[in-house]
Amino acid sequence: ARVLGWFESFISNLEKQQCWGFHSRGQWGRLPKPGTYPGRSIDFVANLHTLAPEWEEIAAYQHAKFNVTLPFLPKAARVNNDNFHKLLNVSTLPRSLAQRICNLYRDDYC
What we know:
The protein is an all-alpha fold.
């Protein structure tokens, strides 16, 4: 209950824009507009849960169409064990709090 209270307080601060670190705000709105960095581009935006199969599909397409071989994806630098997700996840949140979180990050996930 204590952790849930802290988390609810954190969400309240996000809603009031009092707690906006790089890792706590939505990412979609922070992507640079095309042409912002000449010579650099965003080639691919993906969900990390589906990145591997999507990368394989893109690699197969690139190879078939252009005879290009893409590099393998690097291994994840951090892999969280199952206990990481047992601390706090959407199934443990009250519906009203889950909706508030969805409202904060809707551009990234909707």
